[in-house]
Protein 1
Amino acid sequence: MTEAQAALASLVAAALGADPRIRSVWLSGSLGRDGGDAWSDVDLVAEVAEVDRAACLAEYRQGRPDMPPMVLAKTLYGRILAAITPDWERFDIHFVSPEELAELDGGALKPLRGDPSTRPRSHQAAQDDRARERVEAMVTESLRILGLLPVAVGRGEWLVAQQGDQLQRRLLIDLMVEENGIPPTARGGAKKLNPLLTAEQRQVLEALTPPAANREAVIAAAADQARLFLTRARPLADRLGATWPEAFELATRRHLQTTLAFSL
């Protein structure tokens, strides 16, 4: 941010911060993201109660003694004041409600006035939360499917065991995509998987072959996939801060050892 941009932001933020209707003021836009350049305009977010927004917008558009002079002041979308000063400095004020502020990316906001603890969470933090929840669910489901293997083996249900193998493979693929930090909304159609995986991941998956319909084959395939899944899942869970189902894993390992002499 240039000295001129900083001075402009400070002047506008001071005026907004002195207004009792304005709860907090934030630097946003490219400058709030530590991007931009000398040609960037100054974007500010002003938190205001919904009931006061229209009055604030109208008042600041008309001009105030504590605000920079404006040769152009436009209202955009019923919530943004876009202004240009006589020196052709540009600034925008986004008047947002507390609910709207909470939806913004906190990682792209810098506090200028008000309580900085009201900063909304960054979108990345929210994405990490959802990834953590997905990985926790995957690990639990993988262990649950694995623990049902003795049922299929005991009944001689080899087709069911093969279906379980496919479910485990799907979970393994999803886990690898999570390793790469790709959220579900960015994964595209079902027929595009290669772009989501690394060459190493594809090699590992392509080396796994569907088990034949017999006891030895389904147990061996389950063991291979389980070892691979758990080996990769634990570091990812640790990185995301996910809760690992220690008791469930231990119970499942004991169950498989007792029923199938299956050791992971």
Note: The chain has two domains: 3-118, 123-260.
Protein 2
Amino acid sequence: MAALTLVSGHADGHRDDPLLRPIAPDYAAQWLKPQATVLMHGQSYYVGFEGLAVVLVRTSAGLILIDGGVPQAVRAIQANIRKLGFDPGQIKYILVTEPHWDHAGGVAALARDSGATVIAGAPAVAELRRGTVGADDPQASIHEPMPGVTRIRGVRDGEQLRLGGVTITARATPGHTRGSTSWQWRSCEGKACATIVFAASINPVSADDYRFTAHPARVALLRNGAVKLAALRCDIAIPSHPGTNGTLEHLAALGRSRARNPLIDRNACRSLAATYVQRIDARLAKEKAKRR
């Protein structure tokens, strides 16, 4: 009875839950258009939205979730997991790509409800704990505060996380934030295996008054992150904002037929990295043109 009461309380949309208070709801709505849950490959599932990627990996010892969206997306993420026949309470780890509120704002609630441990790139841990980004972040002046995460562990570049026969490797891809981390794992369907990368953003996004041309060290971080992403072994690349490549179209195709998997592309990470480089170059060119 106590357990039933607890679940009911968490699901009560009328109860004020500090961890579920919406962040910038009008702005965030652009990311939260529903997206059908899809088995991507093996035991890896898409459980996110049209504008924000969230991925679930099933293992023999529990579930791994990658990213947590915004607080107002938490109940939808949990519902998507249930649609697949899984229990969100069995999430053992939540992996975070970056300490920005659009990807990590819902993590505190998801971790509380499941008891999961949050894993992030070591440079992002302090920001995730306090719920705000550092002063050197290009979005610092516009970044909304988010619920801080308590049960969290930082990992270094190349460190591996193992659970129930699945090994996920942290791949530092800094730039968008200093702690931005992509996650890489092997997925198999019988003898057919593929390497999946859930890629952190390497977008040159900032407050309106921020100039990347005035911050060469930040530009170098972005370019280094793109180089690292391009070098990863990768058959399937899922960017944290799925509209960055063809993820949404490929998920739709998978929903219609599984005769072939359109997500599989041996050049997936290189192509995604090239898109980010184009955006970096375009942003710098735009800033230089404004100065003329």
Note: Residues 25-291 form a domain with the Metallo-beta-lactamase; Chain A fold (CATH 3.60.15.10).
